[in-house]
Every structure is written in C-alpha cells, then in structure tokens.
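The methods section describes the discrete structure representation at length, but only in general terms. What matters is that the chain and its backbone geometry are given together, residue for residue. Nothing conveys this as quickly as seeing an actual entry. For illustration, here is how one protein appears when written out as sequence plus structure tokens:
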Amino acid sequence: MSRPDNDTACIEFDAALEAYLDGGDAEELLRTATLVMGSAVLLDEERAGVIALLTGCTCVLEDYDDAARAVRRWFATTAEPGARH
C-alpha cells in the first residue's frame, strides 16, 4: 500500500481525530499520526487547541508533525494502544 500525499494524510488524520473524539478507534488515530509525521502543513488554531487539550501538550502545536508527535507521545505514556482514554 502506498503512502498518501501530504494533503490526503492530513485529511485522514483530521478524520481519525474527530472519530476518536466521538468514540472511534485509537489505532486509526495512531496510524494516521504516523502518516503526517514530518508534515510542515500548518494546523489551524482550533485543531491545535483540540489536540493540546486531548494530549495535555503544553507546547506550541504549529503543524501536523507537531500534532502527530503529541498524539503518539500521549498514547505511549498513558496506555497501551487501543485502550480508551
């Protein structure tokens, strides 16, 4: 399976984040976080705020790479993948 382009990966990450917030699959959020690692696409302020609240991240989340790292770090430090938070 090929890796999606940057814009598609960001859209997939946004959808997975929304789904996770509505009770969706943690594994899908982690999978899409991996897809946006290294992305310099800027986050909008609202999306950055949601991710900061979810993950407890106190750093500035500027782009999708920052978001991916915050999500992955949060899952790694809080529970096993797939566990509801």
Observations:
- The first helix runs from residue 6 to 21.
- The mean pLDDT is 90.
- The radius of gyration is 12 Å.
- DSSP finds four helices and no strands in the chain.
